[in-house]
């Protein structure tokens, strides 16, 4: 192995010198071999296997040498084959170069001979042109006469004959252009310029016939049929020339002059223009203003009449693939879209907006127009779109609501002015079938709002809801002004009561209450219509009028009670006085006033009728007790106390007999009389405790006045009662209406001396 390593690798015989890479590889191999040998033969006993290692490495080296030789041999064989191919290619290139040289020499000889044929070619072209001219001379001589004759046919509307002559002239023109060169094309076009004029003249007459097709169909459809046949001929010629051009696309074949004409598309375009012109003439001068509804009605009758003519006459005059009814429907729809878009932009009044909305949403799609079964199959609304967009409809509805709101506001203002004038009349208000007072205000308002809601519902539920919402809002404003007017009415009555009193003041206050009750019924009816709609977005607005009605009713009732108090005031001045003790006329007079007022309250609708009677009784008792708190009478002995208590009990009974109601506040007068009539002052604390249990709002001041009226309560008893009241102070039970809270105890007059004077 060591000898093998020392021998190394011998350089190849064909390498003149050792390559640097080879030297580096040899060094690396030596280093690797030494490293391997030093690891294997690190001990002397390992040298016994040296022969085995040498034999194995010799075999490996021989194998490597044989593989290298085979690789080099195959490489050399490939190089030899490649050199052979290069030699063959060089020989073939030499032959090709020789042949090209011979061809170049031959072409130079022939080019000199080709120049002699140019003259012959020019003569041939001239001969061909002359031959074409000679063959077309008869036609060329007849061109001008045929043009004039065709013009006469067009003027006399013999359209089929004129079109046949025109087709013949165009055929001659095309044949001449094909036989001549492009240099003579302008000359030919100028000569046949009359053909172009004929095309324009024929087209003009043709479209005039198509535009008046509706009138011709009812009289003599022959002319319209001729126009359609000409259109179909031209469409067939256009298709033929387009097919020829596509089949010869590689040769760049030009189209004949004026082709393609697309007269079928022009046919439908003229029909569309005729529809627009025809409908614009329908009452167009009277469209704006009150005539808008008549204009829409005239449009409806005109469209349906024309559609009947198209379906029964024109549809039979055209090929089935024209679908003329569908096309006419589309033209009508597009015109109406543009026309109604223009109309929607005008400053329309409420009635005009209603007419537009009703026509668009109901009449147009009804069985009277496009909803007719025979037309439904032809019309695709979803594809053409609505007459007015959803946004446009919302804008129109908002405009309608604003116009109606303005009208409603003006009518409410006028109705309120009439109402205020009625209040000054020298006669009582009107009486309905139930015997209740009323005026014209609620009837006008209710009918106006109900009518507006009914009319809006003819358009849509959403418009009905917007109109009701607007009406409730305006009613709330009206009721606010109505309440202010009631307040002013009451102030003027109090100011002028001493000079020129309005003897029907109470009557009209009661009529105002009835008016509010009627308006409440109308408001609730409108609210029910809103509540039937799924959305409850109007709940906040719909509660406003009810609250305003309640405020107005409360104010009117308050004025009624003020008027009652005003008439009771002279009698209250004499109440609980010495004269009252001696005479019984005061209470009887008070009962007469109360009875007369209660008779007036019967002119009020429920539940306000009962409410007024209860308030009347409540007011009477409150004023009675307030008079007692003024200490006009202070008892000096038991006889006076018994007389006072007995008289108070009689008054309570009289008031109870004249004021029949579910509430009985006169029991308070009886309870106070029992306290005054009590013989033993020491039992006052029991009576006061019972009174406090029934009337927990009674204060120490009220009880102190009662003890003062008795005139015999010792100081220790008074102190015990006051201490009891201070310690008890029970809370007010639920549903209890305070009565003593409304009664103020007059402050006691304290005598004092001025600092500069001496006390007497």
UniProtKB/TrEMBL annotation:
GO terms for biological process: exocyst localization; exocytosis. It comes from the Eukaryota. The keyword Glycoprotein does not apply. One of its GO terms (cellular component) is exocyst. Signal peptide: none annotated. GO terms for molecular function: SNARE binding. Keywords: Exocytosis. Pfam families: Sec6. The keyword Acetylation does not apply. Coiled coil: none annotated. Belongs to the SEC6 family. This is Exocyst complex component 3-like 1. It comes from Cyprinus carpio carpio.
